[in-house]
Structure formats: structure tokens, C-alpha cells
């Protein structure tokens, strides 16, 4: 390979390494990520995309990881306050992509208890789908984007349904 092309290939390598994807029974799971948290944070959030390339609907029904509690949440604004509530499932219709992102649906990892998420770490987890079954993934911990004051920055937040559901 000529030197200029080799240099370009090396520059693209880090981006390719971060673009981690998983496949199971027609579902493609793209780039599971969690952002760094403050040392005092009690929770952190995970984000990813799920594309249903199959012909039948499916649903994300649970996430299992080594934390006291792991739940699927959604965020909504109520009376000017962002509130998070547990959801039982996230529907993934055929031919559609669902994005778990800050300010929307996300995975909550609760009970960090002085063990913050740090850039470069990975968080092993299992996504459980109603039809496709279980797929093991790794959430890559990345630096928090500038201006993002979401989960894990100060330990504060308005979360519903935390104490009445046992963790996985």
C-alpha cells in the first residue's frame, strides 16, 4: 500500500475501533456507550441503537449487568423538570431503528457506590429481547460530551420507580 493510503488507513483505525456492533436474529445493535460519571455519582446511563432488519417486531425487555439495579428508562419533561421513569419494554418494529440517547430512552446502571465510569473502561451487559433472546454487549465508556449534564454528573435527578423494582 502506498504511504499516503497507509497513513489514511491508520487514521481511520481509531474510529473503526469505536464503532462496535452486535447482531442477533435480524437485530443490529450499534455502538453501546456510557459516559463518564463523577466520583460521587450513584448512577450512570447507557445508550445504543437497535435496528430491526427482520420481518417481525421485537422488543428490548431487560438489560442485565453487574450492578445492584439495571433498568430501562425513558425521560420526559413534566412541569419544566426532566423526569425519568422505568419502562417494561422498548418496541422495535421491523425495518425501524430505535435510538437510546440522552434525553430519551436509556439504560440506567444504578448503585455505582463510589466506583465511577471512567473513559476507556467497558461495561459488560446482556440485552434481553422478547423474540431474539439474549446478546452480550460491552458499553464503552467515553468522555462526557461538552454541555451534557445528564446522568452521573452530580448524583441528582428526578427518577421514578427506583425502589420498587429489584435489580438484575
TrEMBL record:
PANTHER family: BLR7088 PROTEIN (PTHR36302), COPPER CHAPERONE PCU(A)C (PTHR36302:SF1). Residues 144-168 are annotated as: Disordered. It comes from Oceanicola granulosus (strain ATCC BAA-861 / DSM 15982 / KCTC 12143 / HTCC2516). InterPro entries: LpqE-like, Lxx211020-like, PCuAC_sf. This is Copper chaperone PCu(A)C. Keywords: Signal. Residues 1-19 form the signal peptide. Transmembrane segments: none annotated. It holds the Pfam family PCuAC.
Amino acid at each position: 500500500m502506498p504511504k499516503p493510503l497507509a497513513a489514511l488507513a491508520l487514521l481511520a483505525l481509531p474510529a473503526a475501533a469505536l464503532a462496535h456492533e452486535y447482531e442477533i436474529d435480524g437485530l443490529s445493535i450499534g455502538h453501546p456507550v456510557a459516559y463518564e460519571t463523577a466520583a460521587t455519582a450513584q448512577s450512570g446511563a447507557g445508550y445504543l441503537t437497535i435496528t430491526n432488519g427482520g420481518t417481525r417486531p421485537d422488543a428490548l425487555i431487560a438489560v442485565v449487568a453487574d450492578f445492584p439495579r439495571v433498568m430501562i428508562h425513558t425521560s420526559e419533561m413534566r412541569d419544566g423538570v426532566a423526569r425519568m421513569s422505568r419502562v417494561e419494554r422498548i418496541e422495535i418494529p421491523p425495518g425501524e431503528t430505535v435510538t437510546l440517547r440522552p434525553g430519551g430512552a436509556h439504560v440506567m446502571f444504578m448503585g455505582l457506590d463510589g466506583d465511577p465510569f471512567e473513559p476507556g473502561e467497558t461495561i459488560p451487559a446482556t440485552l434481553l429481547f422478547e423474540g431474539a433472546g439474549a446478546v452480550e454487549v460491552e458499553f464503552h465508556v467515553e468522555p462526557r460530551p461538552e454541555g451534557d449534564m445528564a446522568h452521573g454528573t452530580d448524583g441528582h435527578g428526578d427518577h421514578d420507580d427506583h425502589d420498587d423494582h429489584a435489580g438484575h
